Amino acid sequence: MPDLKKFLPPIPDSLKLQPRRAGTNPEPETALDNAQEAGKHAAGWIDERLQLSGAVRWALFRKVPRHDWTYTLGFSVMFAFLSQAVTGVFLATAYDPSTTNAYESIRQMTNEAFLGQFLRGMHRWGSTVMVILVFLHMAQTFFYGAYKYPRELNWVIGVVLLVLTMAMSFTGYLLPFDQRSYWATIVGVNINGTGPIVGPYLSDFLRAGPEFGATTLSRFYAIHMLLVPGAIGAMVGAHLWLVMRLGTTSPPWNKPRKKADA
């Protein structure tokens, strides 16, 4: 069996414990030095038992094309999703998914709860930012040719993530349950119903029946809070695994560097 350790990047010196030489007077330590040493000791204690340092180095320490900020778009999308998940959990603690109390719970959350306006603003505008970042990331992947062999499956997963992102935005739009979100959702569901074959079934699934009712809001809330975020989390995991497994694609206009003559 081949030794996999030789394929792993080395541990950076900044993360290694530096033993002091015997017979030398130790230099005075500051609080920051003590904190760094304690962190290294804690990480070493955990790694000695879980043996995760190799996997972490394999996942994080890898070569990427230099001087191209567009390679941060994928991480930006993931950060936006995590921001949506965290703020959504806090908002869910005060939200009442009922047709009679949904709007009032949103109003109370925004105007009376501690940092409620901040959390709702982060979640509301964060959804727009996430959609924009997803489209930019897809455009960058397309123009860089990262959908070609051997990364076709990763492109398909990215398209599924785009659809799930739009689904999360659509289902979340109804939750304030005001006049604008109510009628806009009716229009959106009716548009879905015009699709071939599965359109009518999809509309009935979203409405939780043939007509809009009290269970429609609960259906949208469950899809928005449980179904779609769970699917996005699973797809993001598969997406990141393929990125780590296959690497990133260099822009087509980048020429390979020539090796220096010996």
Automatic annotation (TrEMBL):
PROSITE patterns: CYTB_NTER. SUPFAM superfamilies: Transmembrane di-heme cytochromes. Residues 15-36 are annotated as: Disordered. The chain crosses the membrane at residues 69-95, 125-147, 153-175, 222-243. GO terms for cellular component: membrane. Residues 42-252 form the Cytochrome b/b6 N-terminal region profile domain. Keywords: Membrane, Transmembrane, Transmembrane helix. GO terms for molecular function: electron transfer activity; oxidoreductase activity. It holds the Pfam family Cytochrome_B. GO terms for biological process: respiratory electron transport chain. This is Unannotated protein.
